[in-house]
Specification:
Elements: H1 11-34, E1 36-45, E2 78-85, E3 104-111, E4 114-118, E5 121-125, E6 129-134, E7 140-144, E8 151-155, E9 164-168, E10 173-179, E11 186-192, E12 196-200, E13 203-210, E14 213-221, E15 224-233, E16 238-246
Parallel strand pairs: 1-16, 3-6, 5-11
Antiparallel strand pairs: 1-13, 2-12, 2-14, 3-4, 6-9, 7-8, 7-10, 10-11, 14-15
């Protein structure tokens, strides 16, 4: 009498699955040996002494800063950590995207408080296709003065054939998106290198499988001075970096006197 395997796969199938798992793991181990890893920590800090208990008032209470938008150092929002190669470093081609490339979309919308970009900021990899879509009932001209990715587009009103335009971002760094007929309406793209991570506040980061070579590592936030280091990545090794986002590194200037 033949016995059927009633609980799981046949022994041959199990063996094939195990062999495939071991093969995939061996490829991963080989890649780890042929590349390096960058790890570290980003610390977001207020100005030294700003929260001192013996201060009689906050700096935001001064006449000069009374209209300044307060900054929450405990919840600063998105922080980008990324690498930029300083020499010709061989990079594996990214895998093809099934169904074709999907662009990153920034929408110009009319909200209760007026015209604005949604989202107001976005992080993209270098070479990403970015689409600008006008969802307002009026046409607008959008532009960027970026030294490497400057552009200007006329966007027709909502539901028109020319209500969207696309551009491929070619260089690393911040790209401010302006609206010609709406002063103060600004969007922000931060273009990061292929090896990057987006953090939320002070946190650990890890950038795996980085080809060996010299790199510039940068921590960026739209409202804080950037912190940059030069590092060298070695095959099979981990490079640790501590990055600090703080106004403490800004040059000192004479403070303005408050008005009486």
């Amino acid at each position: 009498m033949n016995r059927r395997n009633s609980g799981g796969s046949a022994p041959g199938t199990q063996g094939a699955l195990l062999a495939a798992a071991l093969f995939a793991a061996s490829i991963g181990w080989a890649e780890d040996l042929q590349t390096g890893r960058v790890t570290g920590h980003v610390t977001v800090r207020a100005k030294d002494g700003a929260a001192s208990a013996n201060r009689r008032r906050s700096a935001y209470d001064s006449v000069r800063l009374r209209r300044a938008r307060r900054f929450d150092y405990q919840n600063p929002g998105e922080i980008v950590v990324h690498l930029e190669a300083l020499a010709a470093v061989p990079q594996a081609a990214p895998p093809p995207v099934p169904g074709g490339e999907t662009p990153t979309t920034l929408r110009l919308v009319r909200a209760a408080r007026g015209l604005r970009w949604h989202p107001s900021s976005s992080v993209v990899s270098v070479g990403t296709l970015v689409e600008f879509v006008n969802e307002d009932s009026k046409p607008h001209i959008v532009y960027s003065k970026s030294s490497t990715d400057a552009f200007q587009y006329y966007l027709d009103e909502l539901d028109s054939q020319g209500a969207s335009r696309s551009v491929r971002i070619k260089a690393i760094g911040p790209v401010e998106i302006q609206v010609l007929d709406a002063e103060g309406v600004q969007g922000m793209l931060y273009v990061a290198g292929r090896h990057h991570q987006v953090l939320s506040g002070s946190a650990e980061f890890e950038l795996p499988r980085v080809p060996a070579g010299p790199y510039r590592i940068t921590a960026w936030h739209p409202r804080l001075p950037v912190d940059t280091r030069i590092i060298t990545v070695t095959n099979g090794a981990s490079t640790h970096v501590a990055l600090d986002l703080s106004v403490n590194h800004l040059p000192k200037v004479s403070p303005d006197q408050d008005s009486p």
